[in-house]
Amino acid sequence: MQNEHIESIAGLLKTMSHPIRLKILCLLQDREMTVGDLRTEVKTTNANVSQHLSILRNQGIISFRKDANFIYNSINDPRILKLIQNLRSLFCEESKG
Q1: By CB neighbour count within 10 A (0-12 exposed, 13-18 middle, 19+ buried), where does 87 fall?
Q2: Which residues are paired to 39 by β-bridges?
C-alpha cells in the first residue's frame, strides 16, 4: 500500500471507530434510517446522533435523501458496507463449530 492510501484508510477507520458511529453504521447496513430511528436504537439525543451523522457524511461514508419532512440516511460507500458486514461476521456472529 502506498502512504497516501494508508493515511486515507487510517482516517476512515478513525472516523468509524467511535462506538456510536460504529453502531450507526451497523444499523444502516440493513436499511436507511432517520435521525429519530437512529436515536431510538442508539439511545442518545437527536443532537448527538445528528453530530455523528455529520461526521460520517463529511467523510463520505454515508449520504442522505429528503422525503417530505424526513431525512433518510444510508451508507454511501459499498466498501464500507462490506467492511461492516465483515466485522459483524468476524466479531458478532456465534462461531459455528
Answers
A1: middle
A2: none
**Where do the domains of the chain lie, and which CATH numbers do they carry?**
3-86 (1.10.10.10)
* pLDDT tens, position by position, 8-40: 899 999 999 999 999 999 999 989 999 999 999
The whole-model pTM stands at 0.87
Contacts of 76 (CB under 8 A, 6+ apart): 60, 61, 62, 63
pLDDT at 96 over 80: no
Q: Spell out the residues 6+ positions from residue 59 whose beta carbon is closer than 8 angstroms to its own.
A: 11, 12, 15
Residue 74, beta-bridge partner list: 63
Question: Of 77, 70, 37, 41, whose CA–CA distance to 56 is shortest?
Answer: 77
For the chain, the straight-line distance linking the first and the last C-alpha, in angstroms and rounded, comes to 35
pLDDT above 90 as % of the chain:
76
